[in-house]
Write a structure and sequence with these properties.
The chain is built from 13 helices and twelve strands. The chain is α+β, with helices and mostly antiparallel strands. A nine-stranded mixed β-sheet has the order 1-5-6-12-11-10-7-9-8, sandwiched between helices. It starts with 13 loop residues before the first helix and ends in a 6-residue tail after the last helix.
């Protein structure tokens, strides 16, 4: 009789374990070469620390009480625990802090969709380097990391967290419409987004046309030129930030496509600037993501800019196998 294990979890047998360790070793060497030092945080955190970092993600955490009645949670990612670590342990240390990690994270998901409740992450956090310079350093290291695990065809997508909100605010949309359409955009329901804008009865037809066009804009510098005709002053300021990040990244030695995606909106609530997603046609899901989270450190009492990325180990392995690899 085979004993069942919880849905959304899996056993890893020796051959696969060897290949996963090879991925981790390749990434660790790349991180170390880039000057990022490895850290480890507890699998368990106090639930209020996760909620302080991101109330949205905290809702997906597994929670339980300890013997003293304290509410604990399994970490849902590594960015929030490392933000806490830096605020607690490195408060008197001169930044920047270049930190890396390899860890499992845990989220309450719908296993019937094939999502994992427990999954491996590898990534870096660059804390203390502001604006385009910090974003470009993170993207350059991400490019080298993907090459280290033989994913030369993977594409890095670059967006800006505030574009959608700024465009709708300039057009006169209220908070409820912005929140509703943002949720639909995160779910990639573009038809629902357009319907929500129309049904709100807050925007003129031209503004709706601009909004629905914006979220379809993907490509190179030409999409920035087209978007300059959209919105008002608020939108223009956010678009200028995206342009500065893209120009800084373009000045680096990047060996793959960096695709501007003006419809990118990530569900993680602590992002507050440029956002990053990593795609590979061999895998139906994102194999990584990240971005700037300049406000997150403030929540832990330390005023420092920050950016980083996460790669999903199991999805990288799947992409390797689909492309005929599997041995780094």
């Amino acid at each position: 009789m085979i004993r069942p294990i919880p849905p959304g979890t899996r056993d890893v047998l020796p051959d696969e374990m060897r290949e996963l360790r090879a991925i981790e070793a390749a990434l660790l060497g790349t991180f170390e070469t880039g000057g990022f030092r490895e850290v480890r945080t507890p699998t368990l955190e106090y639930a209020d620390a996760l909620e302080l970092g991101d109330g949205n993600s905290a809702g997906a955490a597994y929670r339980f009480f300890d013997e003293r009645g304290e509410l604990l949670a399994l970490r849902t990612d590594m960015t929030i625990p490392i933000a806490r670590l830096v605020a607690d342990r490195f408060r008197e240390v001169e930044p920047p802090h270049r930190l890396s990690y390899f860890a499992n994270a845990y989220r309450a998901v719908t296993p019937q969709r094939g999502e994992l409740r427990e999954f491996g992450q590898a990534g870096v956090e660059l804390i203390g380097v502001p604006g385009p310079e910090g974003t470009a350093e993170v993207v350059e290291l991400l490019d080298r990391s993907l090459s280290a695990v033989d994913l030369e065809e993977a594409v890095i997508g670059l967006g800006e967290d505030g574009l959608w909100t700024a465009l709708l605010q300039d057009a006169g949309a209220g908070p409820e419409t912005i929140e509703k359409t943002s949720e639909l955009l995160v779910a990639h329901d573009l038809v629902g987004v357009e319907r929500g804008l129309i049904e709100s009865d807050e925007l003129e037809p031209d503004a709706i046309a601009q909004a629905t066009r914006l979220i379809q804009l993907r490509g190179g510098v030409e999409v920035l030129e087209e978007a300059r005709a959209f919105g008002g002053t608020g939108f223009a300021e956010v678009l200028d930030r995206l342009t500065a990040n893209f120009e800084s990244i373009s000045s680096r030695s990047i060996g793959r496509t960096v695709l501007l995606d003006l419809g990118m909106l990530r569900e993680i609530g602590y992002y507050s600037g440029s956002t990053i997603e990593v795609y590979d046609e061999a895998v139906g899901d994102l194999i990584g993501g990240g971005g700037r989270y300049d406000d997150l450190m403030n929540r832990f009492g330390l005023d420092l800019p920050a950016a980083g990325f996460t790669l999903y180990i199991e999805r990288i392995h799947k992409a390797q196998l689909e492309r005929g690899g599997g041995n780094v």
